[in-house]
Write a structure and sequence with these properties.
This protein has five helices and no strands. It has helices at about 5-15, 20-35, 40-50, 55-65, 75-85.
């Protein structure tokens, strides 16, 4: 059974704010509040996959300490841009 979009968005928001480290909670909840509703289904698939990644890796990618894997590069760039615009 396929997940309804509103249920999926709620699940992704919850996963965005219940990470392992507080910094990622703060970054991803801001991003999810600002952008999730507008993402296409393929973009939501990619965001869902990103949330499966380790928080330490995510933080290094978002902070620019380490380049992200190529498949996440556009999403990480969008996260950075969105977070910068909401500061």
């Amino acid at each position: 059974m396929e997940e309804q979009r509103d249920t999926r968005l709620k699940r992704l928001r919850m996963r965005s704010m219940r990470r392992g480290i507080k910094e990622m909670d703060m970054i991803l909840i801001r991003y999810s509040d600002a952008r999730l509703d507008a993402l296409s289904e393929p973009d939501l698939d990619l965001y869902d996959a990103l949330l499966e990644e380790n928080d330490q890796d995510l933080y290094q990618w978002v902070s620019g300490q380490v380049p992200p894997p190529a498949r996440f590069d556009p999403l990480i760039a969008d996260i950075r841009q969105t977070i910068s615009a909401t500061e």
